[in-house]
Amino acid sequence: MSIGSMEEVMALEMAEKLRDLDCEILFDEMLAAYTTFQVGGPADALALPETEDELVELLERCRSEALAVTVLGGGANTLVRDGGVRGVVVAFPKAFRGIEVVEQSAERVLLEARAGEKIPALVRFAAERGWAGTECLAGVPGTVGGALAMNAGTAESYIEDAVESVRWVPLDGGAPERLPAKDLRFSYRRAELPAPGVVLAVRFSLRPADAGELREQLRRSAVQRRERQPWGVPCAGSIFKNPPGERAGVLIESAGLKGMRVGGAQVSEVHGNFMVNLGGATAADVLALIGEVKRTILEQKGIELTLELNVIGEDPA
Predict the structure, then answer these.
(1) Residue of 61, 81, 189, 203 marked catalytic
(2) Which residue in the list 29, 135, 164, 308 is annotated as catalytic?
(3) Spatial distance between the Cα atoms of 161 and 90, rounded to a whole number of angstroms
(4) DSSP letters along 129-189, please?
(5) What is the pTM of this model?
(6) Is position 189 annotated as part of the catalytic site?
(7) Model confidence at 1: pLDDT above 50
(8) Is 308 a catalytic residue?
(9) Residue 4 has pLDDT above 60, yes or no
């Protein structure tokens, strides 16, 4: 049996295992279009659920058929290898959006944002109403779910400071449930659920503040980020974590690596800790560039950089 026919048989088997589900499923779909880096190979099956019921039904089917599940979410801060991802990839390119005021008093506001909601929309929503607590996310790309997973924020404040609870569904079965923030394991650029699962919504505890001051703070933050980060070109956010007492971008820039290029991937000329897709970049280009930057910083500075970027999938066979 040829490789081509083997792949066709596997695709048919996957389609059979996922038949009659309500959510949209695309087979052998290239994932580049579903990431902010615009890089990545195909998913065996790309699931695009629009409701919680569709998602729960999908996860139950994957569990019963022993299919691997990878959550891509909004596709920010993620690099998909050129060989793609085996099993089922779950993405929320347009679904799981919305913001709701759950509770409001003179002391605090409980605000719930669905996992697929865009971070800029959440930050604006809160600031315009004079609710403080999400300003650390100003300028952060991607979705609420992705920001939670990366414990996004600034050097001084993180999303964990405002999280009150999350709604999630475990991959190993069960209905959606609420999880208090104390049961999440937060660390630098990371938040872990008690078990593998999918976050559906994040509830924030915010405090009343002056709306005009918040809007001005967001304006200044937006100006600073536009001056210091690449805009209008595909990228995935920060590539490396900041080493203790250091800033990755400063290390990379001082090593003379801004503008270094491998294929279509380049170290941003605006900020050393960003890499951009100049057009036609492959994951192999990005990974080779990452390797060169890590090697140079280790040789010149004696510091080993670690990835903040989430790399998923496999290399081509």
Answers:
(1) 189
(2) 308
(3) 28
(4) TTEES-GGGTT--SBHHHHHHTT-B-SS-BGGGTEEEEEEEETTS---EEEEGGGSEEETT
(5) 0.89
(6) yes
(7) no
(8) yes
(9) no
